[in-house]
């Protein structure tokens, strides 16, 4: 069983990078319970590998960004983060926003992985849900009570990916949706300007 080392503050911040969806369409999934659990195990193992390895902070951040880009379903995340405005965006705008959002979010939360110290995450159970599988894990930190971490996994994009994550029952991508919505509001609903600014931030 794999685990990773992290701080509670860093873990909570990083978790916001994973997608939160109100619902996904029901369909027959090729994804299996074992596959969902293995995905979570791989994420945890990869994070642990980078933390334990050598190299500069900058190189570790790049590695964490790669982990995020590999395992997070950024297309679903981007559409959810954009909210109702995704329906009015052109196909080209959605492609550009998704690309910019992936760089922005991977950079933003990849930087937080380096703060993970003093604890472990252990996968405990897996069960089928309407949209895929729910993988429950437990985070154990030194001097603190254990807390639950729940990953939702689907193959909706054609590959096994995270599309949601909960920490102690809190749906965490809602924070990103709120932030992206506020950013768009400050730009008068101009999606192209939001895309340009996200690229600059990433």
CATH architecture: Roll
Number of domains: 1
Output the CATH homologous superfamily.
Tgt2/MlaC
CATH topology call: Nuclear Transport Factor 2, Chain: A
Helical percent range?
40-55%
Give, in order, the helices and strands: HHHHHHEEEEEHH
Intertermini distance = 34 Å
Low-confidence stretches: 1-10, 12-28
Please give the radius of gyration in angstroms. Answer: 17 Å
Assign an overall shape: globular
- The CATH class designation is Alpha Beta
The DSSP helix count reads 8
Count the E strands.
5
The share of residues in extended strands comes to 15-25%
- What is the arithmetic mean of pLDDT? 80
Specify the biggest β-sheet: 5 strands, antiparallel
Structural category: alpha+beta
Main-sheet strand order equals 1-2-3-4-5
